[in-house]
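Predict structure. Chain length: 182.
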Amino acid sequence: MMPGYPSQSIFAGRNHKMKRTWYVLYVKPRTEKKVVEWMKFYRFFYHLPLYLKIRKAQRRKVRVYLPLFPGYVFTRLNPDERLTILKTNLIISTIQVDKPRKMIHQLRQIKNATRKGPVVKVHHSFKEGDLVKITSGAFRGVEGVVKHEGAKATLCLNCEILGASVEVAVSPADVEKVESQT
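Prediction complete.
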């Protein structure tokens, strides 16, 4: 088992004087953990959000940690480090992050939410709906977009760089509308 579950990240890195840039690595299918092993080997910074899924296998329950965003690993690299990780032949492409502070804030919200409760499902990002903040309960302080499904409300915690979000069921009484900040 890899340390750092339910999300993996390491802040160790070489002492290069070159400026590091935030990237989202789009990796080959089901190779996120292999990429993380290479990142550990080279002592590069990485972040791989994971969630726990319990599966049944031959009448037993098996605990499996899966990537929250399949196919993506978050990293901060300088040009030499980027070239090194591209040579692993596990990376399909790199997406340079234009607004790293916003992405980091969104990843922290998602990490806090997954730490406090189970992740229900991962969905494509939703643009419609109100921006809200949870006011009570385990997810207090988390912001997201509301999607209504029948009698229950669902909060989508967005990670816009990937066009994906994490969906969590909350009571409508536990949220308040946030005024948009531009």
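Summary: Helices lie at 32-42, 79-86, 100-116.
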